[in-house]
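Please, structure for the following, as tokens.
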Amino acid sequence: MRVPGYRDTPPRPWDTTADVDPGEAADFLRRCYAENPKFGPVGPRLAVVAAQLAATGTYTHTPDELAYGAKLAWRNASRCIGRLYWRSLVVLDRRRAHTADDIFSLLVTHLRIAGGHRPIGDGRIGEATRPGHIRPVISIFAPAVPGRPYARVHNEQLIRYAGHDSAGGVVGDPRYVEFTARMRAYGWQSTGAPYEVLPLAIETPAEGVRLYRLPADAVLEVPIRHPEYDWFAELELRWHAVPAIANMRLTVGGVHYPLAPFSGWYMGTEIGARNLADADRYNLLPEVARRLDLDTTRESTLWRDRALVELNRAVLWSFESAGVRIADHHTESDRFLRHLANEERVGRPTPADWTWIVPPMSGGLTGVFHRYYDEADQRPNFYLDEEARHLGRYGTPPPGCPAHRPAGGAEPAAAPAAAPAETSAPASRRAGTAPAARPGVPAAEGAPALSARIAPPVRRRPTYAGDAREPGP
């Protein structure tokens, strides 16, 4: 699969059995210590790491190295327009967590911190905890050890909406129809609602795959209204406030972290021009155009453009009115140009993928449109592996990947709920509204709803049997 952003320098494939590259480890450490003199001289550290590599084939990052490596990965992420704030990334070191219950609990904490529901807990003075005060956060779990299985989350993002096939078409997000069906095959009982949050599918080597329902206060949502058109409320639109990528691999100094979900805040067009507008997603432009009484009989009336602008106005106005952080594409484009200037002043190249940096609407009106960018595979960085991509889209490994059924040879079945992740009282999922239970969800919102059948400890990572669809575009 060709990945936009690396047309000149394709990323190196991940060999899960290979030892850490000593050269890559040394390059990272030299850069890390050069940019952080307070870490001390790099020479002694290089000697320690060389000894660890010789003995084990890998090495362990210090907390400072891990935190700065994650920030460098954001700085190097060629598809991200929001890199001006790379130094502000909140890094949560979760390398000691190994069980599915522990991982789920910490993912819930991640969402609560990212959404502003709770403080980071590192002693910062005057730290805001207002819901809607979105912060960039990454949770980094245990690294992959060469040749050994590792924990991972199957979902593309920690928060995404289910898609349900029905006689009248898809209800919810069409992108996740296959993933939703797979979760239901595992025993998840869905409501069929258009904005139903998918369960988290967490896989560990010892436990197989387990499903967890996110608690209410971990999923901050914003109802979408319009500043002028009251009928927008009749569409009953909403979207979650924290985009949290869950299936990309973080690589720092040759060490791979397959479970390192990261989140920031939305640029309005990600919701209004893609998630809600794309023909293969919620496809709302025809309905918005109909409500606006636009002439849709021919493209030259620009009805799609007019509907798109109003939909994006509604998204931005709704988030701002609810006090939830969001950025418009003009402001974010200007900020990216500031980031380029900052990096140029210190002599650092800035890899960027034009096809991702330019916003999906009014691109020519933004400064990022009118220039070229260098493309390079700079490390540390984030990578989307084919197996992770396919699992996140369809809930199954891609064709050709070895698949092993859980113990007993049967499909995973529903099992009793695990212990609650946290006991703090849930707050509202929606900004500015009173807490309300979702239809069909038990009152014990903080507890995982179900789990797949747990496989006994195994030495090889369990995957799933069943029909696998070809990946989409």
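The chain has one domain: 22-394. The mean pLDDT is 85.
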